[in-house]
Amino acid sequence: MTTTEAAGSMPTRIQFDDNALLPALFGRHDEHLVQIERLLDVKLRYRGNQLEISGPAASREIADRAIMGLYARLKRGQTIGRGEMQAAVRMAAAGEATNKPAAAVHTRKRSIVARSPNQQIYLAALSRAELVLAVGPAGTGKTYLAVAMAVAMLLRGEVDRIILSRPAVEAGERLGFLPGDLQEKIDPYLRPLYDALYDMLPGDQVANRLSSGEIEVAPLAFMRGRTLANAFVILDEAQNATATQMKMFLTRLGEGSRMSVTGDPSQVDLPAGIRSGLLDALDVLDGVDGVEIVQLGEADVVRHPLVTRIVRAYNARDEAKPR
């Protein structure tokens, strides 16, 4: 494949060396090209094995890098879809190399790769640090990537079990007042964690590992008094833990274990006047050896593009409020 660009506002042209890959690159009914046009305000036209990119020079450059990255992915025998296309644009806009294989986390059902530069930083932190605090809005992959890393490490035998936890703030942790047995009481608060697990492992394996205790899903209140050795422990929605609960959770870390704490400080549901344990931990643990803090933002949202716009709108409203 070759890329040529004339001076000024002349179009950028890409010439591909394998026409057989172009239907997958362009997408059904050219949907990938249409999405790139919308995202970058460029025009894409192709004839034979050549693609022409018209538009502002900066946008043409980003589109060029993104398309080259997607094409390189296809040449490696990988598939691309809407998510991969959006990730390529995001990486290209950040100036990241898109034609190199991204670091992947391999589970039984799928391989998960970073879809933004900050997600790459996050995955690297999860692979090396004993405690990682990931902060960011909904849709940035905070919990999903942590569960993926936990499952991958379990499958490789690097940990003996996975423990997933959330504060059950909506029930005030007073689970006894809810109808049903214990599992029925806590399942509604922990369902997102189950959903992530079923994305990584076949259903029968999830059920078997839950039954054996190899995977445990429990409210934060159930962590008190335990020492968690040889485990990958994840605390999700950590903004809704109190400072006391957070200290309790963090001090459960045992030999051979990893911890990931995820949350969105803009979504605190604690009663007024109670400081979020996540915010407290970010202050206390900044600079502590063995702890890594990763900040994710609206540019890292990997859900529907509208989610990014929603996050941006709320952020703009919050920033405009008098302080």
Number of helices, counting only DSSP H or I runs of 4 residues or more: 11
Task: Indicate the proportion of strand residues.
Answer: 15-25%
Structural class: alpha/beta
Unreliable sequence segments:
170-179
Rounded to the nearest angstrom, the radius of gyration is: 22 Å
Order of helices and strands: EEHHEEHHEEHEHEHHEEHEHEH
Outline the biggest β-sheet: 6 strands, parallel
Mean pLDDT: 86
* N-C termini distance: 54 Å
Helix content: 40-55%
Q: What is the tally of beta strands?
A: 12
Shape: globular
Strand order of the largest sheet: 9-8-10-11-7-12
Structure write-up:
This protein is α/β, with parallel strands linked by helices and 323 residues long. Helix content is 41%, strand content 17%. It has 11 helices and 12 strands. The protein has a 6-stranded parallel sheet, sandwiched between helices. A 4-stranded antiparallel sheet has the order 1-2-4-3. It has a two-stranded antiparallel sheet with strand order 5-6. The termini are far apart. The relative contact order is 0.12.
List keywords for this structure.
323 residues; alpha/beta; 6-stranded parallel β-sheet; 4-stranded antiparallel β-sheet; 11 helices; 41% helix; globular
